[in-house]
Design a protein that fits this description.
Length: 118
């Protein structure tokens, strides 16, 4: 999901997608959700680190509060700041691609397989 420059609020279409993701995740045995925020290089490094953290926290809070994801199933949100750019930060389109949060549903197969032990 992408954010406007300097923004941390989640737009309504992304809220809907996140809530659907939360429902699907709850159907997976031994799931965890990973949330990682990023920023474009527009602005200072310190500001971009903070805004990437705020974006990840915003998404994590939505998943917990509205998606009813237990805190035990949510990995600590990550903040990557300006690192790992996916777009060309010299263009407006590239900067928009870099202002993002990546959400992944992970399954711990070791825990999921515990119920099969004798």
């Amino acid at each position: 999901m992408h954010f406007g420059n300097g923004k941390v609020a989640i737009s309504p279409p992304y809220k809907t997608k996140l809530l659907k993701l939360a429902e699907k995740a709850k159907a997976i045995e031994a799931y965890n959700i990973q949330v990682v925020g990023y920023a474009s290089s527009s602005g200072s490094v310190a500001l971009n680190q903070k805004i990437s953290e705020d974006r990840a926290e915003s998404v994590a809070n939505l998943l917990v509060q509205q998606g009813n994801i237990p805190l035990t199933n949510l990995l600590a949100p990550g903040a990557m700041g300006e690192t790992r750019q996916v777009g060309d930060d010299k263009t407006a389109e590239g900067q928009a691609q870099n202002r993002r949060v990546v959400v992944r549903v992970l399954q711990n197969k070791g825990i999921a397989g515990l119920h099969n032990l004798p």
